[in-house]
From TrEMBL:
The lineage of its organism: Bacteria, Bacillati, Bacillota, Bacilli, Bacillales. The chain crosses the membrane at residues 12-32. Keywords: Membrane, Transmembrane, Transmembrane helix. The keyword Transmembrane applies. Pfam families: DUF4227. This is DUF4227 family protein. The keyword Membrane applies. It comes from Bacillus inaquosorum KCTC 13429.
């Protein structure tokens, strides 16, 4: 009877620890989500920002040439 009680208490300890750490992890993930939910990554840049991507309209050729270029260079 003593061994059964000790095994049951050990299993209960493991269950309580697992449940506690799971709840802690869950609430930590909620906190991180709320922290970054209001983080504005796509605000307009300030200062002397330069637009990096511009489409080149003077390029001759179509989608097939671009596809061949992709296969040859991987870009």
């Amino acid at each position: 009877m003593g061994r059964f009680l000790k095994t049951t208490l050990d299993a209960l300890k493991v269950f309580i620890l697992f449940t506690g750490f799971t709840a802690l992890f869950y609430y930590a993930m909620i906190w991180v989500n709320q922290e970054y939910e209001n983080y504005h990554r796509y605000d307009k840049p300030e200062g002397s920002a330069v637009k990096v991507v511009e489409m080149d309209q003077d390029e001759k050729g179509g989608w097939f040439d671009r596809l061949i270029f992709f296969y040859q260079n991987g870009e």
